[in-house]
Specification:
It is a single chain. Helix content is about 40%, strand content about 15%. It has helices at about 35-45, 50-70, 75-90, 95-110, 120-150, 175-185, 200-210, 225-230, 255-265, 295-300, 340-354, and strands at about 10, 15-20, 30-35, 155-160, 185-195, 215-220, 235-240, 240-245, 250, 270, 280, 300, 305, 320, 330, 335. Helix 7 links the parallel strand 5 (about 185-195) and strand 6. The protein has 2 domains: about 5-140, Up-down Bundle (Four Helix Bundle (Hemerythrin (Met), subunit A)), CATH 1.20.120; about 145-354, Translation initiation factor eif-2b, domain 2 (Rossmann fold), CATH 3.40.50.10470. Strands 6-5-4-7-10-15-16 form a 7-stranded mixed β-sheet, sandwiched between helices.
């Protein structure tokens, strides 16, 4: 199932989902069967599966699992039992809007269905979850093709966190742009921020790119400014967990600092994300909920405690990059440039019409 850019982060296997356990990478490639909505919620919260588009798929499959578990023959009763489980799935993590988007899409599909039996409702949900996955992979490939045009013929890209195949149904957003450029014959090299505190850049992005033979240099987060100032980086490409209507971007903690440093040094900062990541209901990034995670993610690495017992810890998982630092947002319907408030809305209408 895992083959670098073709890695299938999550698949449907008849009557359950299977995920690659991202907490075990890069040392072990372990696959986990997810058979209940509660197991999916735990996998999301423990980051066995993570990345905004992947969470959209996980949410959809979680609803399908809920449908398979409900024991009733009454369609109205089926929907009544499905709704609270869907709500719990949507709230498993707060920042990535794709999770609630995937759940809401499934619930809307079930509620609008004119099918006479619960069995048909179950089948409909399973089919829709698989459709969400297929659409995500297709969207990533289109995104990659659009974004590849922004990358130099021969140059170096900086990325932060992991926005690759592991963060999606397959292929990736930011790494999908890099993959597409390489597939077009461009000589692309990558600087990958390690991405503290959970090291998604070191563990996941580096794993994906090394597996594909794309030249990759791992750096600590604090080194990005040095290499940007030295002219070693031609552009920055990152993913996103939520994009507000005005173009403010929530992404893994540390992204804001990279964007400011890129702007200071005249390096374009691009965001690659599907339209499902755009939340037109939020006028600005100030309203994006920021997840606060456990202190031990900061005080420990690999189970080893590095900080003194009793120290206070702040651990926001995401930060918000103001739209003024974003040169363009790469989506599956094209590259969106400022003014974002107008152009993101237009891109969303275009995506809805497809």
């Amino acid at each position: 199932m895992a083959d670098s850019g073709n890695v299938r982060t999550i698949v449907w296997a008849g009557d359950h989902a299977v995920i690659i356990d991202q907490t075990r990478l890069p040392h072990e490639e372990v696959y986990v069967a997810i058979r209940t909505p509660d197991e999916m919620i735990r996998a999301i919260q423990t980051m066995q599966i993570r990345g905004a588009p992947a969470l959209g798929v996980a949410g959809a499959m979680g609803v399908a699992l809920a449908g398979l578990a409900i024991d009733t023959t009454d369609p109205a009763g089926f929907l009544a039992q499905l709704r609270p489980v869907a709500d719990a799935l949507a709230q498993a993590r707060p920042t990535a809007v794709n999770l609630s988007w995937g759940v809401a899409r499934m619930l809307a599909k079930a509620e609008a269905a004119a099918v006479p039996t619960v069995e048909k409702l179950r089948n409909l949900l399973v089919a829709e979850a698989q459709r969400v996955l297929a659409e995500d992979i297709a969207a990533n490939r289109r995104m990659g093709a659009f974004g590849a045009a922004l990358l130099p013929q021969d140059g170096t890209v900086l990325t932060h966190c992991n926005a690759g195949a592991l963060a999606t149904g397959g292929y990736g957003t930011a790494l999908g742009v890099i993959r597409a450029a390489v597939e077009q014959g461009k000589a692309i090299r990558v600087y990958a921020d390690e991405t503290r505190p959970l090291l998604q850049g070191a563990r996941l992005t580096a794993w994906e790119l090394v597996a594909e033979g794309i030249p990759t240099t791992l750096i600590t987060d604090t080194m990005a400014g040095h290499f940007l100032h030295k002219g070693a980086i031609d552009c920055v490409v990152v993913g996103a967990d939520r994009i507000a209507a005005n173009g403010d971007v929530a992404n893994k903690i540390g992204t804001y600092g990279v964007a400011v440093l890129a702007k200071e040094n005249g390096v374009p900062f691009y965001v690659a994300a599907p339209i499902s990541t755009v939340d037109l209901n939020l006028p600005s990034g100030d309203l994006i909920p920021i997840e606060e995670r456990r202190p031990d993610e900061v005080t420990h690495i690999g189970g080893t405690q590095l900080a003194p017992t009793g120290v206070q810890v702040a651990n926001p998982a995401f930060d918000v990059t103001p739209a003024r630092y974003v040169a363009a947002i790469i989506t599956e319907v094209g590259v969106v440039y400022p003014p974002f408030e107008e152009n993101l809305a237009q891109a969303a209408r275009l995506a809805a019409a497809e």
